Amino acid sequence: MSARKIIIDTDPGQDDAVAILLALASPELEVLGVTAVAGNVPLPLTERNARIVCELAGRPDVPVFAGCDAPMRRKLVTAEHVHGKTGLDGPQLPDPSMPLQEQHGVEFIIETLRDAPSGAVTLCPLGPLTNIATAFMRAPDIIEKVAEIVLMGGAYFEVGNITPSAEFNIYVDPEAAEIVFKSGVPLTVMPLDVTHKALTTRPRVEAFRDLGTEPGRMVAEWTDFFERFDKEKYGSEGAPLHDPCVIAYLLNPGLFSGRKVNVEIETGSNLTLGMSVADWWHVTDRPANAMFMGDLDAEGFFALLTERIARL
Fold first, then answer.
1. What phi and psi, each to the nearest 5 degrees, are found at residue 77?
2. Is 4-309 in CATH node 3.40.50.150?
3. How many Å apart are CA 263 and CA 128, to the nearest integer?
4. Where are the domains of the chain?
């Protein structure tokens, strides 16, 4: 069976970095490219971080592209308070030696989808949806070519992590999220409701460290860094490992359960800007547009993640 072709759209971020490592360690997936977007930190850092992670995985052959440096209509909001000033704070890593591609990330997405057979490429956004929405607006003909979008973003029962009502990725560019959620592309969404169950408990972190490899050590030290914020914020025994849920779903969808529901994105209210309004209980007649995940097998998730990181 041939590998599933994916494009990772990302704003690394320690958890984004772990997701990229998981994808690059998995032969079931062919990463056609990594497109960086402004989000957790500004674009010059996210594209740099993406290249650092590819080199850590021993995959400098994977092309990395810089995409949009700001949301479609709003001023950029970043998350250095979680990820540190570089986005990958924690252990020190050398500057990347692999080149940044000259082509803009949005143009890479458009060109790749136009050149591929319909349904051949899956998009995997791990950050704000600016690059994906911009590509859809510039080239609406590519929308029907996308096999599926599997994204990390939104929340329902967990509500918000950057405002009382909004999850960070959706909040940063709600207009982009609205475009994507209304695009008609098959959507699978990993909201906070799922990712907050993927907690980096001490035994799970030590399992990465005990691999005795550089990628294993880096994953452990990255989680050591960013979990300090989430443990204090949520009072939990570990931090949510958000973005690897996207890649884990591609590898083993049976780890996750959810419902096909309607999800609308709030773009007009100052109070609830960026809220992902999921009709979990089907109380409206709005048609379902997303598989919205609600639970996962956390032990199975971390077993998969540890086994794959060990391959690097």
1. -110, 130
2. no
3. 16
4. 4-309
First-to-last alpha carbon distance for the chain, in angstroms, is 22
Catalytic residue among 83, 104, 196, 242: 242
Q: What is the mean pLDDT of the chain?
A: 95
Q: What is the pLDDT of residue 228?
A: 60
DSSP sequence for the chain: -PPEEEEEEE---HHHHHHHHHHHT-TTEEEEEEEE-SSSS-HHHHHHHHHHHHHHTT-TTS-EEE--SS-SSS-----HHHH-TTSS-SS--PPP-SPPPSS-HHHHHHHHHHHSPTT-EEEEE-S-SHHHHHHHHH-GGGGGGEEEEEEE---STT--SSBTTB-HHHHH-HHHHHHHHTS-S-EEEE-HHHHTTSB--HHHHHHHHTT-SHHHHHHHHHHHHHHHHHHHHH--SS-B--THHHHHHHH-GGGEEEEEE-EEE--S-TTTTT-EEE-TT--S-PPP-EEEEEEE-HHHHHHHHHHHHTT-
242 is catalytic: yes
Structure confidence at residue 245 (pLDDT): 98
Residue 166 — very low, low, confident or very high, per pLDDT cuts 50/70/90? Answer: very high
Distance CA 180, CA 57 (A): 30
Report pTM: 0.97
pLDDT bracket for residue 65 (50, 70, 90): very high
Q: Are strands 290-296 and 256-261 parallel, antiparallel or unpaired?
A: antiparallel
